[in-house]
Design brief:
The protein has 427 residues and is an alpha/beta fold. The protein is built from 20 helices and five strands. It is globular, with a radius of gyration of 23 Å. The protein binds flavin-adenine dinucleotide.
Length: 427
């Protein structure tokens, strides 16, 4: 009996439960990855992000032969079923909104072709549905940590049949690019990252103090179990961050309406200003607040952004410019290498104080944040080198000091009192 194993966000051969499960039941497996043209179009995927995906697939292809095909999921599966004649198709369970829709499509194509469809649980340390419904992170974490399952599962030996289907090499992709993130670095990064210093350093965007493993997690280059085990006993804070990821999936599972709607019902009718000139200035990194603009530049240049900066720019867009969080969510979707629909939506809502784990009105004052987390302006000057000669205290506070730079598009203090009124009116 021959089976297809469809890789999605689990691009590794080792410690891959889906592949392991399939290999215990089938001697012949057809490993498959689909570059789904609809997903690529919807994500507005640019070259940098595709290069990472190609490289992750190249790494996987160095471990096992993988057929890589382009087209719609339906077109590709039809061709594979016709050529390979499998009895089963295995893939991982999805808990994201778009992933669930896609799995439904895959299942119905399988059913139409008499192929048995099997989903295997992977990509989480705890099943999102196994924890009694929680709306706040801390009680979620208390339950989550008790349930973490670290059993590793490697695939048994299986044969990959020779089929007239393309592999990555046949797609003729040029992998050369100077991007800062490479899937092949995931292993060394995990091995050498100083988890003991994570809590102390993780908030300073100029320092390489967070793990930068998010793309490795997003594409499944590393298993979550291997990451958890490496951090265990060295940084409880880091383990808590892994739980944040799963908290957002728990929220999405229990409150599926939060894909489009604010988690907090009372905050569903905020009258966002959505002024086009503010949105444009934000997208183009010319808000006049160096810390915010540096963040946007990092995001666009590296396709990754430090967590502290995600909070600062997210708060600035929603609470200072009074722009709908959905516009920020789309912007991150377009740029982030580690873009994850569920995590991004959860965090944008959290930052805008409309989501789960609520506080009445979270504030990230860009002036105080810059003073506290970029005290020497190393981060600002790295991404806005044209400001290198300006004294740091001036760069922190563009309201107080006139800078030879974009004039601040708004006065933070005035805007924040408008925002507070707007939120208070809805409370
Ligand atoms: C507005 C906003 C949008 C975000 N969008 C995304 C997104 O699309 N994809 C994404 O992976 N992360 C997102 N995050 C969460 C977080 O910023 C990134 O996971 C983190 O910066 C990645 O860098 P790192 O791997 O060095 O993280 P580390 O600090 O080293 O953390 C380790 C891992 O824990 C997880 N993690 C850390 N913080 C969070 C968090 N707040 N929520 C959920 N998981 C977390 C990630 O998987 C991360 O790789 C967002 C945060 C904000 C405020």
């Amino acid at each position: 009996m021959r089976a297809v194993y469809l890789f999605k966000r689990d691009l590794r051969a080792r410690d891959n439960r889906g592949l392991a499960y399939a290999s215990k039941r089938h001697k012949e497996i057809v490993p498959l990855f689909i570059f789904d043209k609809d997903i690529i179009r919807d994500l507005k995927v640019d070259k940098k992000r595709l290069v990472y995906l190609y490289k992750a697939l190249a790494l996987l292809s160095s471990q096992i032969k993988v057929y890589c095909m382009q087209g719609s999921t339906e077109e590709v599966l039809k061709e594979v079923f016709k050529t390979a004649k499998p009895t089963h198709l295995y893939t991982t369970t999805s808990y994201s909104w778009s992933g669930r829709e896609r799995n439904k499509v895959i299942k119905s194509i399988c059913q139409a072709h008499g192929v048995e469809y099997v989903e295997v649980f992977e990509n989480f340390l705890v099943r999102p549905e196994s924890i009694p419904q929680k709306k706040v992170y801390t009680p979620f974490y208390t339950e989550w940590i008790k349930r973490v399952d670290l059993t590793e599962e490697d695939p048994q030996d299986f044969k990959v049949p020779d089929l007239p289907l393309p592999t990555l090499k046949d797609l003729n992709i040029d992998f050369d690019s100077p991007e800062p993130f490479h899937p092949e670095d995931c292993f060394e990064r995990l091995r050498s990252f100083p988890f003991e210093r994570y809590e102390e350093l993780r908030n300073y965007p100029a320092i390489d103090g967070s793990s930068r493993l998010s793309p490795c997690i997003r594409f499944g280059v590393l298993s979550l179990r291997s990451i958890f085990k490496t951090a265990q006993g060295r940084s409880e804070q880091f383990i808590k961050e892994l739980a944040w990821r799963e908290f957002w999936y728990h929220i999405a599972y229990n409150f599926p309406q939060t894909k489009d709607l604010e988690f907090q019902e009372k905050r569903r009718n905020i009258r966002w200003e959505n002024r086009q000139e503010y949105i444009q200035a934000f997208f183009e990194a010319r808000t006049g607040y160096p810390i915010v603009d540096a963040g946007i530049r990092q995001l666009k240049e590296e396709k990754w952004l430090h967590n502290r900066m995600r909070m600062i720019v997210g708060s600035f867009l929603t609470k200072v410019l009074l722009v709908d969080w959905r516009i920020g969510e789309e912007f991150f979707k377009e740029h982030l290498l580690d873009y994850d629909e569920v995590v991004n939506i959860g965090n944008w809502q959290w930052t805008a104080s409309v989501g789960a784990d609520p506080k009445p009105f979270r504030l990230f004052n860009p002036i105080l944040q810059a003073q506290r987390y970029d005290p020497q302006c190393e981060y600002i000057k790295r991404y806005i080198p044209e400001l290198s000669d300006i004294p740091c205290e001036k760069l922190h506070d563009p309201i107080r000091y006139a800078l030879p730079y974009h004039k601040p598009i708004v006065n933070y203090y005035q805007r924040i009192s408008i925002a507070k009124e707007l939120y208070r009116a809805l409370s």
